[in-house]
Design brief:
- This protein is α+β, with helices and mostly antiparallel strands.
- The chain contains 13 helices and 31 strands.
- The protein has a six-stranded mixed beta sheet, with no helix packed on it.
- The termini are far apart.
Amino acid sequence: MMLKKSRVEEVQSGKVEIDEESEEEEEEVEEEEENDSSIDKNFGNTSGVEIAQQSSNNINSNAVENVFDKYAVDHKIPVSHQVDLKGHVKAVTCLSFEPAGNRIVTGSLDYTSKLFDFGGMDARHKFFNSIEAHESHPVSAISHSPSGDRFIVGTGSTQPIIFDREGKEIIKFVRGDMYIRDLTNTKGHTMEVTGVHWHPTEKNFVLTSSLDGSLRIWDLLGVALFGNLTNKHVLKIRGVTGQNRVGATSCCYSPNGQRAIGGAADASIHIWNTNKKGLFSKADVILRLPANLSSHGGAVTSVVVSPVNFNVLAARYDSGNVALWDMTTPKAPPLKIFSGLFNEYPSANVDFSPDGSLICCGTTTSTKKPTVKPTANAAADDTVPEISKAGISFFEVPAKAPSSSSSNAPPITSTPSMHIVVATSCTVIVVKWQPQTFQLCCGLSNGVVKVLFDPRLSKKGAMLSSSKLPRREIDSADFAASGMVGEIINPLALPMYRNDQNGPRKRALDRKDPIKNKIPEKPIKSGPGSRENTSFFFTNYVMSERKTDPTRLEDPREALLKLDEVTKSEPMFLGKAYEQTQPERLLHSITAEEEQERFKKEQKKLL
């Protein structure tokens, strides 16, 4: 993959610094463009991996043949090779790496999640398991635990589910009561789940977001209601005027776990400090775009914190913009805005590089030429159809806040530092940069997951499976070369026809065989008749295995009165819903039969 002509003009204008040797490379641009097709063939094929493995593992700038590769290597962007992970039939909306980078879980609009193991795959890259968390519900978010032994899947339903690393369901979250107005009084989400994120340091805490306008923190060791886990804290998204029903469209933890962050449908970002003693539903910090930048806002489809500077936040909006925020100055405008990143999917995300110097996100670009009104002399075939190219755009993160950050006019740029095209006629929806294996993974709208890597920078991960060619299956029509004799098998020499035992030992075994000696069945010593009463013994077996339910023999009213004290001390079902209107619960003191007898006696007295 080579640098395009527009990129060379940017290099010549001084936007990208190059050394003195680049002058000679500029003269060779035309020759390199002619060789693009031959080089592009190696991009994305396993043969390119074999060629790269033969080269030196050390980064040598003198071996870089063009400016594009030089910029990618200098900024440590692994895009020289790629492999395709196939299995989905619809758009891939989310994905998550294990912390070690050996496995990846992908989610799609086809309602399934695919599990890939790079260490156990060959060059065909087939998934080893496919799960459907909720039937007929698309997958919206996936996140792994810090140890990689579990992962959580959020779907279009209200109940996220936690699986182990092999895809076996562990626990499901409870569904909230949609008829309760106050979200703090219900123990689960009541609308579609839009985001999930595992706590980076605490292995038993999970953060989720939903369109019901709440973020919920779940303790996996907490209280379970009828086998479903209940939440521990409720964080509510509040609008400008204080309304509660502003949908939460994304969520994340900071890398140190001290902040819980949620993106809202009204382009606001709400931040809670989870390190303090009391965690309240109202956000501690709210980031909103100024009035003059309202056109750059929209629903926040993704929020992520820099892995190096925990105060820098990147947020992506559905209007096609990405904003960098400083969370320590909530009243200031964004540090920088990157525009022109259009994506029609609500789960489009943005991600930081492992060193925090770059951000990357998926885009869709159009190559349609300007349309011309047809004339009498113009033919209908002159129109050029629109072709969309799926690409990944990279932007450099400023090392420090610009001087204009104090004003209401932050710098806005639409030209990426680098842009690569990974496919045509589709869209790059989600992008993840794995810091351990140093590989870049992106999910496309055509159901394909592409893993980009560079043998000079990356390690393990997709490189393990790319070097394993599948063994050819032997066909029945295969034959050996002429003059060679194949293996001859004697049917009588097969184990199924072999009889190794002969003589007295074989006869002794035959005498013990009741079938060969035709020994009749002996009558039983006890029991009625000379035959075994199978029905009698079967009834005993069924009755012994039968589990009786003691609650059927208990009075329902007495059973409820036993739980009266427990429900008063630990209100689990009603909570605080009737605390003000009915502080003391009213229970019926007599049964229906007693009430009917009392009514009959009163009627007799009146007569």
